[in-house]
Write a structure and sequence with these properties.
830 residues; mainly beta; Ferric Hydroxamate Uptake Protein, Chain A, domain 1; 22-stranded antiparallel β-barrel; five-stranded mixed β-sheet; 50 strands; 53% strand; Beta-barrel_TonB; TonB-dep_rcpt-like
């Protein structure tokens, strides 16, 4: 190992603890600029270098148990570079022949090695913007945050948000079946349960209610914050939020083309290109696009989509930055199919056996879900001085959807065991969302205490204009379906004459929310205390009109209301020298409710209150993050029946969720990456005046429906929430062969266990537990021949054994999970 002489003389400026402690280094041969990122992370040193100095310089890498001095010397060997150490301990690279520095450009090291909105490193992300709206190490945030990195999404070749979240603790991503029929219906939608409550979805920190889902081709990473988040984000469910980061220009050139194929006649092409526009690099661009066509596991349900997402980053000066992002998606058929199948024939034995997962309960030529939508977003920041900066994010979204369905009518099979009643509807809808978040970020000291304070205001405006037409449809024989006998009876021109089941609805909704918030992260040595509060003002103005063409009657309702809510949180973490960080926090959340009580008073928002305690461990020896947490959530102000005034509600209901989560995300070596997690969640109606009607499977009874019997009403209090697994556990491993003739070959394997769930709120029957296996193989052809450099092939199989399983059920119907999905991809990077 050759260490530059100047480098040797400079090592005395480094602390003894840093230079004498050995660490495991695994940094492959690559451009020096990217190698320094890995070195800073693995060594804990803060590195800086002139941008011109690194251009075109490569390193042969560094491997083994070494001190930071030895590792840095090996990393710089043959590069013509050495280093000096500044007064504050920062390591600055220089040319070996001269120690003149040219205005160093920061190459992030230790914490801050990755962009907190960027793809992460392997399966591990160290920092996040989502938890505090500041670039903060995850170990300093006193609640559970899990990051799905770009590498994880690529290894698993995820096609939608549900697939991206399969290995994330605290989330059940397949509960309602919309995304489990094999369609790649993008990155939104679905009904995700997060700590037992429906998740709220955000994009780049702003709430998103767009009807059009984002595509995974446009997403850099996905973060989940488990537990109440209203202090930083306003209205949100107490279980937490999902925050997706859009792709934006990269610091180094990126050029990627890919073609994909799979079962159900899937064909896909994508591109992703990023580079600088000006020679100085202060203006950069990126553009990603996708085109896909696919059938699904359900007959007559198809998925077609084209989309593009351009972005530009402008470094206006050394203190000011502006990023512009656009996104447009056209989906003439989105592949979503939410129609459930009878419980008898799926969960329970059917008259003629088990129903096929290909069974289509709709009507060919009628069922379709068409979506068109786009967004524009900008992110602006300005650094006034070393202590104060301003940050602003703005987004405008607009979408149009038009979907028409014939699907299973609520209720069980007819008494013959083969006839299923159906219902038809058509829903054209337009939505528009404007969101803006502005805040000041201050960093200052009071003695030995460091503060990172945020003061901000955000605004959200949502408009929806929709129509809804409904009537009963003809029944279907589930074992011998015959289509083509459906005629719409909506009672409007072009939609058939009205019948006794026809009705329609027209509605306009406007929601406005303004919030003012503050937060202070107070650090003293290893202790970080986070406190924050927020006041929100929320208003809604809804108008709707219902028509009943067959009777010639109609009714009109308006429901304007306004409310406000105060939320707060406080928590503390203490990071020990060896990387363990215990933490504790209390946080609250709110969600507005519509309607009034018997006296005409508007209902207050529901309130979420959570206690959470846990441990986070960031080992010093290798790149990993371990998390263990226990939580208790109460959601209060829940509506329940007013016992003194039948037909009205009061706010004395309550739901309680309590449990714990354990997770591991690790890049054990440069060749081995692992994910593992376990979740236990007990969710029940802890207070309620309501009752619920149970359905039971009874093979001796055909009344009122085939083998499903309605029971007497039961108290809802004490019952467990439906479609929330008590237990979930998963593990995913990716391994690359390190050497030999098969170098460049990677394998991965995953297992997902979902425990049983109750099918309904009456807890009258259960959905069985299931375990699914995923696997894949990837080969880098460039390792075999230099002229194939950049060419990579990959094949992924989910639900390897093609297991037939039920994701959730309702009164007497169930959703079938996704069967075996095979997807291959050939990509080229240059």
């Amino acid at each position: 190992m050759a260490v530059p002489a100047h480098a040797q003389s400079a090592t005395t400026a480094l602390s003894a603890a840093t230079t004498q402690t050995t660490r495991t280094y695994n940094i492959a041969a690559q451009p020096l600029s990217s190698a320094l990122l890995s070195f800073g992370k693995q060594s804990g040193l803060q590195m800086t270098a002139p941008g011109e100095l690194l251009r075109g310089v490569k390193t042969s890498g560094v491997h083994g148990q070494l001190t930071s001095r030895q590792a840095l010397g090996q990393l710089l060997a043959g590069t013509g570079l050495s280093y000096v150490v500044s007064g504050n301990g920062t390591v600055i690279l220089t040319k070996t022949a001269a120690s003149i520095t040219l205005g160093p450009v920061r190459v992030q090291g230790a914490y801050g090695t990755e962009n907190p909105r960027g793809p992460g490193v392997g399966y591990v992300a160290q920092t996040t913007m989502s938890g505090t709206k500041t670039d903060t190490p995850i170990t300093e945030i006193p609640n559970s945050i899990y990051v799905v990195t770009k590498q994880q999404m690529q290894d698993q070749q995820v096609q939608n948000l549900a697939e991206a979240l399969r290995y994330t603790p605290g989330i059940y991503a397949e509960g309602m079946g919309q995304q489990t029929n094999g369609a790649a219906a993008g990155f939104g939608g679905g009904s995700f349960k997060q700590r037992g409550f429906s998740s709220s979805q955000f994009i780049d920190g702003l709430i998103s209610n767009s009807e059009v889902a984002l595509d995974p081709s446009f997403i850099e990473r996905v973060e989940t914050i488990n537990g109440p988040t209203s202090v930083m984000y306003g209205q949100a469910a107490p279980g937490g939020i999902i925050n997706e980061s859009l792709k934006r220009p990269t610091d180094t050139p990126l050029r990627n083309l890919s073609v994909g194929f799979g079962n159900w006649n899937r064909y896909q092409a994508t591109f992703d290109v990023s580079d600088k526009i000006t020679s100085s690099g202060n203006l950069k661009y990126r553009i990603a696009g996708i085109g896909v066509s696919q059938d699904t596991q359900t007959n007559y349900v198809r998925y077609h989509r084209v989309g593009v997402s351009p972005s530009v980053d402008w470094k206006i000066d050394d203190k000011t930055d502006l990023t512009l992002i656009g996104n447009y998606v056209y989906t003439p058929e989105d592949g979503a199919y939410s129609s459930y199948l009878p419980a008898v024939g799926t969960l329970f034995p059917g008259k003629y056996g088990r129903l096929s997962r290909h069974l289509f309960m709709g009507e060919p030529g009628w069922n379709n879900h068409k979506e068109t939508g786009g967004l524009f977003e900008y992110l602006f920041s300005h650094q006034f001085n070393s202590h104060l900066s301003f940050h602003q994010t703005f987004r405008y979204e607009e979408s149009k959807t038009n979907f028409s369905y014939v699907y299973t009518k609520s209720g069980a099979l007819d008494s013959d065991g083969v006839t299923q009643p159906r219902v038809a509807f058509s829903v054209p809808n337009t939505t528009r969302t404007v969101a803006l978040d502005s805040h000041l970020l201050g960093k200052y000291r009071t003695g030995e205490v460091r503060h990172t304070a945020v003061v901000g205001v955000d605004f959200w405006d949502y408009h929806s204009n929709g129509q809804y037409y409904r009537s009963d449809a003809n029944s279907l024989n589930i074992y011998a379906p015959q289509y083509g006998n459906f005629t719409p009876h909506f009672g409007y021109p072009g939609m058939g004459p009205a019948d006794a089941t026809s009705w329609s609805w027209f509605g306009r909704d406007t929601y406005d929310q303004v919030g003012v918030y503050f937060q202070d992260q107070i650090r003293y040595k290893g202790l970080t205390v986070t406190v924050g509060g927020r006041e929100d003002w929320f208003s809604q103005n809804s108008w709707s009109k219902s028509n009943f063409p067959y009777t010639g009657t109609s009714s009109t309702t308006t429901s304007p209301f306004s409310t406000k809510a105060f939320t707060w949180r406080a928590g503390a973490t203490y990071e020990l020298d060896f990387g363990l960080a215990p933490y504790f926090s209390y946080a609250t959340s709110f969600q507005p409710q519509t309607g009034t009580d018997v006296e005409g008073h508007a209902f207050k928002p529901t309130e979420g209150k959570q206690f959470e305690a846990g441990l986070k461990y960031k080992p010093r020896g290798f790149d990993a993050l371990f998390t263990a947490s226990a939580f208790h959530i109460d959601q209060t102000n829940v509506l329940t029946s007013d016992p003194q005034n039948p037909g009205y509600s009061i706010q004395t209901g309550q739901m309680t969720s309590k449990g714990f989560e354990v997770s591991a995300q690790a890049n054990i070596t440069k060749d081995l990456r692992i994910l593992a997690s376990y979740t236990y969640d007990d969710v029940r109606y802890s207070k309620s005046n309501d009752t619920t009607v149970p359905y039971y499977y009874d093979p001796t009874s055909n009344q009122p429906a085939y083998h499903m019997r309605e029971g007497a009403a039961l108290p809802l209090k004490g019952k467990y929430a439906a479609a929330v697994p008590r237990n979930m556990t998963s593990m995913f491993v990716n391994y690359a062969l390190p050497e030999g003739k098969l170098r460049g070959l990677e394998f991965n394997f995953g297992a997902r266990y979902v425990g049983w769930t109750y099918a309904n709120t009456a807890n009258s029957f259960k959905v069985p537990a299931f375990i699914l296996f995923d696997t894949g193989v990837r080969y880098d052809f460039g390792k075999a021949a230099s002229f194939l450099k950049g060419l990579v092939g990959q094949v992924t199989i989910s639900n390897l054994t093609n297991k037939y399983y039920i994701t959730s059920c309702g009164t007497a119907q169930c959703y079938i999970g996704q069967g075996r999905r095979v997807y291959g991809n050939l990509s080229y990077n240059w």
